[in-house]
Specification:
The protein is of the alpha+beta class. It has 15 helices and 14 strands.
């Protein structure tokens, strides 16, 4: 097959030996630079077309040819848009040349002009991008996210050491290479060196909606922390299969403060904190280097009792990655309260709900009505919190258990109007509320003991 290089052609594929495109009539180019045979269209961008080609000087080895479309998209040669597109295209070539020694960044083979188009030739990476993988295999679990972060952060360390900011990090620009499962970072078309003076006008969009941080979108400024924001948003997309651009269009940047509510399955609290810091709206509060994120990843508790994660390659072969221990699903649910923040939340929920229960019993009297109303109010107060569904349900269960124990233990006291009994009644209410907190600690302790037994023997 031979591919038509007219960017406006609707059906560019033609059989070998054809001189003029059967679809648009444009003369076909058998070989670019007498070396590259373009055989198929890979993708269409705003100002570029990407093709797969064969390098006849390398025994028909496949490569990628990227074509910059000039006059068809930007009119006369003097327009600012034309100059900007040319600048970005040339910048991508320079970045690939600077970074091409890294095994997880495509090598640059050639950069030239032929006819009215500029061409960039780079290494062909066989595999799926992570958006394709997400659609095919479903959301990532914590094991896959940890591998993703470790693998890609090592690439970003090198990129940032060269003082280069990618500026468009997202699942489509990350390919899982088929032969070794390594992640390859592509598309440096809008990348920028830190020492370069920014001439991007305020309001000009550089990057992808939902993935680009506020300083990049509104001020045209970027830092290493800007790429790390996009990395955190990419983690969110892979964990939820929800496009961040759709949330951004509705809520701006505010949705990042309650991103946990969209999780499809629980992840460890420690990993949540890492993602929190990656997607801080203020770039000064984010991680300032990829290496710093890697250091925190190394401190994460080991995952237990899980088989090595597998990745389905385009050819359908299951390829295993290095083994990582992970906790079982049941164990993961039980360990929800093994950190201070959730334990304190459980104590506050149980103590506060105990006071609410006493007040309802005092003023309503009827046990069934009081209990039903208490449960509705408790559920409402818990579910408006920015926690995962599993955490919310667990908080309600703990509160119900603690208050049920109090009711069974002090049933006679609760039949009287405690709150209306003066100072003694008030002191008794305080005692019961505090007692509810202690009962919660005991329940959580038993919860952890059960978790350890299950983890050890099952």
């Amino acid at each position: 097959m031979i591919c038509c290089l007219n960017p406006n052609c609707e059906n560019p594929q033609n059989p070998d030996g054809t001189n003029f495109c059967l679809s648009c009539g444009v003369k076909l180019i058998p070989l670019l630079r007498n070396r590259y045979r373009v055989i198929g269209l890979l993708g269409r961008g705003g100002f570029a077309r990407t093709y797969v080609a064969e390098d006849i000087d390398k025994l028909n080895e496949q490569c990628v040819v990227k074509q910059l479309v000039l006059s068809q998209f930007y009119g006369s040669q003097g327009t600012n848009a034309h100059k900007k597109a040319t600048e970005l295209f040339e910048r991508e070539a320079k970045r690939l040349k600077e970074l091409g020694e890294h095994v997880q960044i495509p090598n640059l083979y050639a950069y030239f002009q032929e006819g009215e188009y500029l061409y960039l030739v780079q290494q062909f990476i066989e595999g799926q991008n992570l958006l394709q993988e997400l659609k095919q295999q479903g959301v990532f679990d914590e094991v896959k996210i940890r591998y993703f972060l470790h693998d890609l952060l090592s690439v970003l360390v090198t990129v940032h050491e060269q003082e280069i900011i990618h500026r468009d990090l997202k699942p489509e620009n990350i390919i899982r290479r088929q032969n070794d499962n390594k992640l390859v970072l592509i598309d440096f078309g809008v990348s920028k060196q830190r020492r370069e003076t920014s001439n991007t006008a305020i309001g000009t969009i550089i990057g992808s909606l939902g993935y680009a941080p506020i300083e990049q979108m509104q001020l045209g400024k970027v830092f290493t922390a800007s790429d790390l924001y996009s990395l955190g948003i990419t983690c969110f997309h892979l964990l939820t299969n929800i496009s961040p651009s759709s949330l951004w269009m509705k809520q701006g940047y505010s949705w990042t403060s309650n991103w946990r509510q969209y999780l499809k399955q629980p992840i460890s609290h420690e990993l949540e904190l890492i993602i929190d810091k990656l997607i801080e709206e203020n770039h000064e509060k984010r991680y300032q280097s990829a290496q710093a994120v890697l250091e925190d990843l190394k401190k994460l508790p080991r995952l237990r009792n899980t088989l090595p994660p597998t990745v389905l390659s385009p050819s359908g072969i299951l390829e295993s990655q290095p083994q990582v221990e992970q906790k079982t699903t049941g164990s993961g649910y039980l360990r929800l309260f093994s950190n201070y923040q959730l334990l304190s939340g459980a104590i506050i929920t149980a103590s506060g709900s105990s006071f609410l229960a006493i007040a309802l019993f005092t003023f309503l009297g009827t046990t069934w009505i009081s209990s039903g109303l208490w449960l509705v109010i408790l559920a409402g107060l818990v579910f408006i919190q920015s926690r995962s569904l599993v955490e919310k349900v667990s908080l309600i269960i703990i509160a119900v258990m603690a208050n049920l124990l109090l009711v069974l233990s002090f049933k006679n006291l609760l039949n009287t109007n405690i709150i209306l009994s003066g100072l003694n009644g008030l002191l008794l209410v305080i005692l019961l509320v505090v007692l509810a907190g202690f009962v919660t600690v005991i329940i959580v302790g038993m919860w952890e003991i059960i978790n350890k037994v299950i983890s050890q023997y099952f």
